[in-house]
Specification:
Helix content: 25-40%
Strand content: 15-25%
Number of helices: 7
């Protein structure tokens, strides 16, 4: 974004319009994840990012795109330029939120952007927040149910019928007496509750990685690893 925040800053106020309300109603009608908004409502930049990153507000993703770049198309072009700069060669963005079926990527590509994003102090602090209060929506909660458990400090859940359950994550574990950061992405998790499937797959992956490294540290013979769930990239 062209409006970087520093820790402790709220950023400029973004005023929502009738068009934003209509867009929210349209997205809600097609089953997208949104937060309630009202014409004339003002969200600070930080609050808009909280709406985007905690309850997955696709409508606010569009608001932020227009506010930051002047139009959604211009913002998406910047997203793709950033993807190219990070050598995300199998990624193509067609919308700000990732809901569009034409937006495609891989777990390996998404790990690149997670690493970059978690280097931004404000981003890392927001995705580590359990809940936030917005002017119209009220209290919204982080969809990352693993936050604060088993070392998880972020990052973001997602799901669509096309993509299945997805979860970009970071966990910090003490392995062999050493503080170890584990970053990964799971995609395509099946089931009735796709978000829960993504969370469960990530939790199992972190346990597996931590156990694998701990066995190496202790010199215990390695056991054959279990097969990874669909969509999981090591």
């Amino acid at each position: 974004m062209n409006h970087p925040l520093r820790v402790g800053q709220d950023g400029p106020a973004i005023t929502l319009t009738d068009a934003d309300v209509a867009d929210t109603d349209r997205r809600r009608g097609q089953g997208e994840s949104v937060v309630p908004v009202a014409a004339g409502e003002q969200l600070t930049e930080r609050q808009a990012l909280q709406a985007l990153l905690l309850p997955s507000a696709n409508n606010v993703a569009a608001v932020l795109a227009r506010w930051d770049a002047g139009s959604v198309n211009r913002f998406v072009a910047r997203m793709n330029a950033t993807a190219r700069s990070l050598e995300m060669t199998r990624t193509r963005y067609t919308d700000p939120s990732g809901y569009d079926d034409a937006t495609v990527s891989t777990a390996a590509d998404q790990v690149r952007i997670v690493d970059r994003a978690m280097g931004l102090a404000v981003f890392a602090s927001i995705v580590a927040t359990p809940s936030a209060t917005l002017p119209v929506a009220g209290t919204v909660h982080n969809t990352n149910a693993l936050l604060g458990r088993n070392g998880f400090v972020g990052v973001k859940t997602g799901s669509t019928d096309a993509a299945g359950g997805c979860f970009a994550f970071r966990a910090i574990r003490l392995i062999g007496g050493k503080r170890t950061t584990i970053t990964g992405v799971v995609l395509g998790q099946p089931g009735d509750n796709q978000v829960a499937g993504g969370l469960a797959a990530a939790d199992a992956m972190v346990d597996r990685i931590a156990g694998h490294r701990l066995r190496q540290v202790r010199g215990v013979p390695e056991l054959p690893p279990p097969p990874l769930a669909p969509g999981i990239a090591p």
